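Query form — protein Bcr/CflA family drug resistance efflux transporter

QUESTION: What is the three-dimensional structure of this chain?
INPUT:
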Amino acid sequence: MTKQRYFAYILVLGSLTAIGPFSIDMYLPGFPAIAESLHTTTENVALSLSSFFIGISAGQLLYGPLMDRFGRKLPLYFGLSLYIIASIGCYFAESIQMLVIMRFVQAIGSCAAMVASMAMVRDLFPIADGPKVFALLILVLGASPLIAPTVGGYVTEALGWHVIFLILAVIAAIVFMAVIFILPESYPPDPNYSLAPGPILSSFWSVFKTPQFYTYSFCGALAFAGLFAYISASPMVFMEVFKMGTKAYGWVFALLSVGFIGSSQVNSFLVKKYKSEQIVSTALLAMVIIAIVFFAGSWQNWLGLYGTTIMIFGMLCCVGLIAPNTNALAMAPFDNNAGVASSLVGATQMAIGSAVSIAVSMFKAKSAVPMSSFILASSGLALMVLLIGRQFIKTKVEAKQEVGGAVH
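ANSWER: The structure tokens for Bcr/CflA family drug resistance efflux transporter are given below.
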């Protein structure tokens, strides 16, 4: 593979990965405007975010088997088409109920892009390149939290929140064209792959029961849930508690995202010297310590705007180190079932993340305590899963060898 093709693939795969986060981040600054326009509250508007998370979680389980049966591109074409239609539906939404429904459908479409991108990384690149490629995808993905909230804030003030969803539809259409003309079909259709419920459940179970998979997918998903807690609670914390305007919130959101993006790129250098397992352990322990300080500080009102911002920045740095390594380690043992494994990794992340998002949205406390408490709980559970799960991996020579292959 030439260098030009290598980076072209990464650019398109990263753009696919970014569709979901763009759909989340771009409309966050518009929460107050949406609430006013649809005659509801910001807490109810947050339900449209939760419905999006639920849709992504459920949809990924659908696309995994479809991509192992029909190849990667045909289900991806369907998902992107559905996303564009639902985005237009969000533009025309005149009630919070309609917005919540359209966001759910939009998520069902967008998760095809997420499943395809992870599976195609496994198809197109060597296992040894896994952590590096995932880190590069996060670099492309980083355009979302850097650009989307800021653009969303300006668009909301200048043209209204509805226009955000037209922009999302246009972005998806451009990515659609790039998929058609740049990405190859990385996995040929398999007519012998059964879509009957029994064989599908058997495929999911064969992946799920692998110790390396369940340890790192759950560990990564729980750590990633801290990011969901931050995303769901940040409009309330920054715009209502700290009285920031729409544009200022967009800039702070972008600034904080530098921690996530920067640490994911530092990871590309760290994997040359350390094993992915070592990076995950260290970053997760640091995340737990930061979460303890953040919770105590927000509970006692010690932090204020700057202290809260620093704590969130530190947490995002840790997630940026954890995510590419846990994804690569969870996917490493699988060849033929890469689509199923990819969908399970994504579905696990989104299921836990959507649960955290809904739970955070239910709290009416006008402080950072709900956010910090869920970050502490999720990171603590992630550390427990890692410590316990590794005991099972050590008893499985095959899994142990795959871990080595994934990081060397």
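ADDITIONAL NOTE: The domain at 9-182+199-407 is CATH 1.20.1250.20 (Growth Hormone; Chain: A;).
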